[in-house]
Design brief:
The complex is a heterodimer of chains A (399) and B (94).
Chain A (H helix, E strand, L loop, with lengths): L5 E5 L1 H12 L3 E4 L6 H12 L6 E4 L3 H13 L4 E6 H6 L1 H9 L5 E6 L13 H5 L6 E4 L3 H16 L7 E6 L8 E5 L2 H8 L8 H6 L4 E3 L8 H30 L6 E4 L6 E5 L3 H14 L4 E6 L1 E3 L3 H8 L4 E6 L11 H9 L7 E7 L8 H17 L6 E4 L4
Parallel strand pairs in A: 2-3, 2-4, 4-5, 5-7, 6-7, 11-12, 11-14, 14-15, 15-16
Antiparallel strand pairs in A: 1-8, 6-13, 10-12
Helix pairs in contact in A: 1-2, 1-7, 1-8, 3-5, 7-10, 11-14
Chain B lengths: L15 E3 L14 E5 L9 H5 L5 E4 L2 E5 L9 H5 L5 E5 L3
Antiparallel strand pairs in B: 2-5, 3-4
Classes of the chains: A alpha/beta (399), B alpha+beta (94).
């Protein structure tokens, strides 16, 4: 456990709301949606109680909520929101604008399946759909990570070399509504860690200086490409910044984070790649199989954007078989969204594992240790024979 | 000689330009029809000035003065809103 922290019991939504209270943003604009509703609902009570100085904007839709965050952020205000699934989908065009205008908005996202059929439970189809929007994406395994990730997100987003929006996620209901023990920092520790918003010319300061600026003007064939190239570069530069912020966080508070988190991978021959709350279940299965003599491990991906190519190559290339656990489907007659990126990262390596995609847990379908044991059983056979009979399997669906 | 354009490293971050940059972008040539104002019918209610989405109605001392053809896109909203039918839209090539 870390230093000076206070042990408390919080749900994922409460942890996000408490982090937001401690961050004390200038503006929060939001619209409620299950299972993220509580985040902003709890936060609105902090506003009503005068516990924060935040200007709270109850918008009429998520599109408007993100638009309000964009306007506020363009005026130099530290801006935050929270959403889930259909809400994130309704923010769609504004997500790209937030990133393209280089606005460091921080958003708590609770992963939930996209309709139809309508469903309120966890999968990653909402955030995976936003993966190319120019947002940094950090996935949380548990409530503690959710809290720590949201606090780190502020520093990452506002770093002068980055200036990109960040979403930190939890898994719907599994984390958002489940009570876990976590260590909460003091308000002062958070305040000192995030610091003030770094000075930057913005719509408001430019008016005050009597040198007004235009932000987001028409940008056609002659300049759009250059501006998008800048966004691409910011995502590259986000890499070392995310590491630096995590390192400082670790030094101050005793909990360290990487882009990925390997578990029992050092001498492993077979592994699964997993994101979010399923990681814990996968670790349990690995421990069980290890005690039966199987050389198995887990690679958790915490930061999905920017994509941690180096860490993936370093940890996975020595393996014989790797299963990618995709909690979203690509509906492309091929695979889920995580599989092709891992595959592409490893393609040029002289030594690389066979890869198999396992789409699981859609719409909150529970993933049990037995499901993951089955995945390992398939992978161990691939490792033994050096051949795979399939690229993609749906795990946990009724056949 | 070809104009030297800024590279992505030289350009200001995030498409930031000086204020009022739309003044440099003359949209008048988008027009296919243009408003013709009849001063004899005009009561200077300035509804056209309120409705114009491009600020192309020039007003002086509370009275209609002219239409700024550099920016008027010919949308016809002024003609539609005018209660005295003092503005008619005519084809640009007439």
């Amino acid at each position: 456990m870390g230093q000076n922290g206070k042990k408390v019991a919080k749900t994922g939504n409460e942890a996000f709301a408490e982090a937001m209270r401690q961050i004390n943003p200038d503006v929060v604009a939001a619209y409620p949606i299950t299972p993220a509703t509580e985040i902003v609902q709890i936060f609105s009570q902090f506003v009503a109680d005068g516990a924060v100085k935040t200007e709270f904007v109850p918008a009429e839709s998520e599109h408007s909520a993100m638009s309000a965050c964009i306007g506020a952020s363009a005026c130099g205000a530290r801006s935050m929101t929270g959403t889930s699934a259909q809400g994130l989908a309704l923010m769609w065009e504004m997500l790209y604008i937030a990133a393209g205008l280089r606005l460091p908005i921080v958003m708590a996202v609770v992963n939930r399946a996209l309709s139809a059929p309508i469903n309120i439970h966890c999968d990653h189809s909402d955030t995976m759909g936003a993966r190319d929007a120019g947002w940094i994406q950090i996935f949380s395994e548990n409530v503690q990570e959710a809290y720590d990730n949201l606090i780190q997100a502020v520093r990452i987003a506002e770093h002068p070399e980055v200036r990109l929006p960040v979403m930190a996620t939890t898994d719907g209901f599994i984390l958002s509504h489940c009570l876990e023990t976590m260590e909460m920092l003091s308000d002062e520790q958070v305040r000192q860690f995030i610091g003030p918003v770094p000075a930057r010319e913005n719509l408001l300061s430019s008016l005050e200086n009597n040198r007004p600026i235009t932000l987001g003007a028409l940008d056609l064939q002659d300049y759009y490409f250059e501006h998008r190239r800048q966004v691409a570069e910011a995502m590259v530069k986000a890499g070392p910044v995310i590491s630096g912020v995590a390192e400082e966080f670790g030094q101050r508070f005793g909990r360290t984070y990487g882009f990925v988190e390997p578990y029992r991978l050092d001498d492993a021959e077979v592994a699964v790649v997993v994101m979010g709350s399923t990681t814990g279940t996968a670790r349990e299965v690995v421990d069980k199989l290890r005690s039966a003599g199987q050389k198995v491990g887990v690679l958790k991906i915490r930061v999905f954007r920017p994509f941690p190519v180096e860490e993936i190559v370093r940890t996975l290339s020595p393996l014989k078989a790797v299963g990618i656990m995709d909690r979203a489907d690509g509906l492309n007659a091929f695979c889920g969204p995580l599989y092709p990126e891992i595959s592409a990262a490893l393609y040029d390596e002289a030594s690389r594992p066979k890869l198999v995609d396992f789409i699981y847990g859609l719409g909150g379908r529970d993933v049990s240790p037995a499901n993951i044991e089955e995945i390992f059983s398939d992978l161990l056979q691939v490792a033994r024979t050096g051949k795979k009979n399939f690229n993609l399997k749906y795990t946990g669906v009724r056949e | 000689m070809e104009e030297k354009k800024a590279t992505w490293k030289e350009l200001p971050e995030a498409d930031v330009l000086e204020g009022g940059s739309s003044l440099q972008f003359k949209t008048g040539n988008w027009r296919s029809s243009k408003p013709l104002h009849h001063m004899d019918k005009c009561i200077h209610c300035l509804l056209c000035w309120i409705a114009c989405p491009d600020g192309a109605i020039v007003v002086k001392e509370g009275r209609f003065l002219a239409i700024n053809e550099d920016y008027c896109k010919g949308c016809g909203i002024c003609a539609h809103e005018c209660p005295k039918k003092a503005i008619e839209m005519i084809l640009e090539n007439k």
